[in-house]
Design a protein that fits this description.
The protein has 288 residues and is of the alpha/beta class. The chain contains ten helices and seven strands. The protein is globular, with a radius of gyration of 19 Å.
Length: 288
């Protein structure tokens, strides 16, 4: 099996155009700029005008996109395909947010909004791109999932559920597109340096009544971690590890359905495979 560094361009299909969503910071920002440096024509998305301007200053074609707004998805696809003559080689679905909180404290509206941003919007954008890829006979659909889409952890119910849904949806598409020249891959990172934890603080304070919850004591530790920007660990790499997996998914003749990224994520997958379920979930609960 090829390593992540051993990538080749598929015969007759030089991949050069890609949409990268959630490019305001973290994984998306790094991957958009890295791919631009590597010779790709990158169409990146963000929500804030200042982030769009920063991408444009680096020579990247940038657009507004909010997965919760179908009109913005429709406008993005129309603008990109107009600029490319109706072709697109790759899509990297990345933009998402995490809604922390115990499942019993989670308002239905908050869960619905989590799915709008992390699942339904991704589905909408993906299926709008597939016809162009079918027409040209090739394409790469890469989705930035999470280890929490494989191994759930307490107080991450909404985010974990959205990633589990994404895994099921896109793995079905992976099978349905076999023989079309279009490949589907899921990247499943563990902890990576990004703003997802600090951004999650907003959603936690907005939607979770933490002061009146039976989980109030546990939430105090969660709040301290969120306010500090997430967990601190020597095993927490930068977004370059996701870029390495993305590059393989885009350029390999045999892209993988799954790319489990970071040491903690790989450990989680191994433990899920070898431990009894009850023991696994007790262990995960202690680390939440």
């Amino acid at each position: 099996m090829a390593t992540l560094g051993q990538t080749t361009i598929p015969h007759g299909a030089a991949l050069r155009t890609i949409i990268v969503t959630g490019a305001s910071s973290g994984i998306g920002a790094y991957c958009a700029r890295a791919l631009k440096t590597e010779g790709w024509r990158v169409f990146a998305t963000a929500r804030k005008p200042s982030d769009i301007a920063a991408l444009e200053a680096d020579g990247i074609e940038a657009f507004y996109l909010d997965y919760r707004e179908p009109n913005s998805i429709e406008a993005l696809v129309a603008s990109v395909l107009e600029r490319t003559g109706g072709r697109l080689d790759a899509l990297f679905n990345n933009g998402a947010y995490a809604q922390p909180g115990a499942v019993e404290d989670l308002p239905v509206a908050a869960l619905r909004e989590q799915f709008e941003a992390n699942v339904f919007g991704w589905h909408d954008l993906t299926r709008r791109i597939v016809p162009a890829m079918r027409s040209q006979g090739h394409g790469r659909l890469v989705h930035c999932s999470s280890i929490l889409g494989l191994t759930p952890v307490r107080f991450r119910g909404a985010y974990s559920a959205s990633k589990h849904a994404l895994e099921g949806l896109m793995l079905c598409m992976h099978q349905e597109l076999q023989g079309s020249g279009i490949h589907v891959s899921l990247i499943e990172p563990g902890p990576v340096t990004s703003k997802i934890a600090s951004n999650a603080l907003f959603w936690f304070l907005r939607n979770i009544d933490h002061e009146n919850s039976v989980h109030r004591v546990d939430y105090e530790a969660q709040l301290a971690r969120l306010r500090a920007g997430g967990s601190v660990s020597g095993l927490k790499p930068g977004p370059e590890v996701v870029h390495a997996a993305l590059r393989h998914a885009l350029l390999s003749r045999r892209p993988r359905p799954h790319y489990v990224v970071t040491v903690p994520a790989r450990i989680g997958v191994i433990l899920k495979r070898i431990l009894p379920a009850s023991m696994l979930y007790r262990l995960l609960a202690k680390r939440a």
